[in-house]
Design goal:
Blueprint: E1 20-22, E2 28-30, H1 36-57, H2 62-81, H3 92-114, H4 119-142, H5 148-166, H6 173-199, H7 203-225, H8 230-236, H9 238-259, H10 264-271, H11 274-284, H12 291-309
Antiparallel strand pairs: 1-2
Length: 310
């Protein structure tokens, strides 16, 4: 049986995994298996995500660097979009939902930082919350099944990521609330993106279009909230706007492709190991690796192994 409502199942960037389960309404849902290629793609996506975030974080003006990266992704996507099919009309509502939720995530993170949470507390906590909520949403809304071992693996990944936040030792109530809001919005964002990719005739076309939309939204937000002109932000961070943009765009398209081959919760959990890769990159840059962080990395790695062999 073919998934109802999913087009392009025969294209290289859009293939359903062979196992499937039936929802109560008769529509097919992805089962809980995931192959090695999809796992590798998800982990590569996580590494690339961590790499460009590290470049943004270490810049002299992270907010301007982030604007340069997001807007750069949109600029690169424009000519590439002419070479691939446009997203299917059925995927557009999901794309709009994803863009809106992505803006909520951004604002929640920024508010969390502003209330004293700090990047090391707010961001990991948001990422730790997201996979568990994706698991719930995908089960209730999509009828996607994840086995016991897969659920345990997702929980281990989330708990390992949460340890990074606990190691910061910050307990600002408002920052905590905004971190949880960012996690909830991230979960809904992942579900929207996964459905958008699955309902599009081209995963790459969907990803490029979403990057253009996100560039417009984030660029507008930067113009309104930041004193540095957008053009100057891009010029001042050409490295992030080129190499960082390439890494971010590839990371995004890879995880969209994974969503077409595996349950959303599994893909989201593996993608959120980007926090682990970020810690390893930081350690390689001389920040050190505390015992708690090493334990967090071990837990997340164990979770990823459970997910693969579930």
């Amino acid at each position: 049986m073919r998934r109802k409502g999913v087009r392009g199942a025969g294209t290289p960037l859009h293939r359903r995994i062979p196992q499937a389960s039936l929802r109560p309404d008769g529509e097919q849902a992805l089962a809980y298996g995931i192959d090695s290629i999809a796992v590798g793609a998800a982990l590569l996506s996580a590494f690339l995500h961590a790499a460009w975030n590290a470049a943004v974080k270490t810049s002299s003006d992270p907010q301007s660097a982030m604007a340069a990266q997001v807007v750069g992704s949109g600029l690169i996507s424009l000519p590439l979009l002419m070479l691939v099919p446009l997203p299917s009309s059925t995927s557009l509502p999901w794309l709009c939902g994803a863009a809106s939720l992505n803006l909520v995530v951004l604002i929640a993170l920024l508010r969390g930082y502003a209330h004293g949470g700090g990047f090391g507390f707010v961001y990991p906590l948001a990422r730790a919350t997201s996979p568990l909520l994706v698991l719930l949403l995908a089960s209730l809304l999509q009828g996607e099944a994840v086995g016991v071992a897969g659920i345990a693996g997702i929980a281990l990944v989330s708990f390992g990521i949460a340890l990074f936040a606990l190691s910061e030792g910050r307990r600002q109530p408002k920052a905590l609330a905004y971190a949880l809001l960012a996690g909830a919005a991230s979960a809904a964002y992942a579900v929207c993106d996964a459905n958008g990719a699955r309902h599009s005739s081209s995963v790459l076309g969907y990803g490029l279009t979403a990057s253009i939309v996100n560039a417009c939204v984030f660029g507008t937000l930067h113009i309104v909230r930041h004193p540095v002109p957008l053009r100057q932000a891009v010029r001042s961070h050409l490295g992030v706007a080129t190499l960082g943009t390439s890494a971010a765009l590839l990371s995004y398209v890879l995880i969209l492709w994974v969503y077409t081959r595996a349950p959303i919760a599994i893909g989201a959990a593996l993608r959120d190991t980007s926090v682990v890769f970020a810690a390893l990159i930081a350690a390689g840059l001389g920040e050190g690796l505390s015992p708690r962080r090493a334990g967090a990395i071990a837990l997340a790695a164990a979770g990823a192994c459970l997910i693969r062999f579930a």
